Amino acid sequence: MSAAKVAVITGANRGIGRATALRFADADYHVVIGARDAAQAEEVREAIAAKGGSAEAMPLDVTAPASIDAAADALAKAHSSISVLINNAGINVGQEHDIVAASYEDIEASLAINAIGPLRMSRALLPLLEASRDGASIINVSSEAGSIAATLDPENDYASMKAGSYRLSKMALNGVTALLSKALRDTSVTVHAMCPGWTQTDIGGPDAPNTPEDAADLALGIATGGVDAPDGSFRNREGALPW
Q: What PANTHER family is this protein classified in (predicted)?
């Protein structure tokens, strides 16, 4: 079994997930690249290997319980523990619709990937996370768009953003974060939500001010204690965010 610290990252084949996989590999983690696109996941693994890092590509669909169970079984056979789980896989569909106009198909798909998927992953990998001798972290890639306080603040940067399906799903993910933190308070596993901000990804587009590497640095800082992120916290690169 692997003796290195293991970081499992969902949606690690592109965007923030890919950058985070590369960043954690640079920090001497063994990275598990979870993705539905096997070819892209393998490309990330090869990029890490070319730099002397350690990684494995793993087929993973966070909306499919059987896929999550298979991944958890494979991880338990290969590794004695997991140090970090980064729930990064996500979608933003129907961006032009607020919650009144959003289709139920978009709402259900967003909740399945952005909120229920992270909960399923966290529960499935909990035994391996609890087995980490130095403690472990669950990091949920959320958004300030999912802050209830921000939603109700007309002066907030996200005030004009519609994206009802996405915003609801990130509110749910923040709830998952808070509830998991409370449930695991007496364990060695901490739970965090992070907001990467408007980022240059397939969702954010090329004009966004933040890069995927910025988000990767924040995730690594939370995992290693390099930034102030207490158990049960929600923050971006500047500091704490309101729920």
A: CHAIN DEHYDROGENASE, PUTATIVE (AFU_ORTHOLOGUE AFUA_5G01530)-RELATED (PTHR43544:SF32), SHORT-CHAIN DEHYDROGENASE/REDUCTASE (PTHR43544)
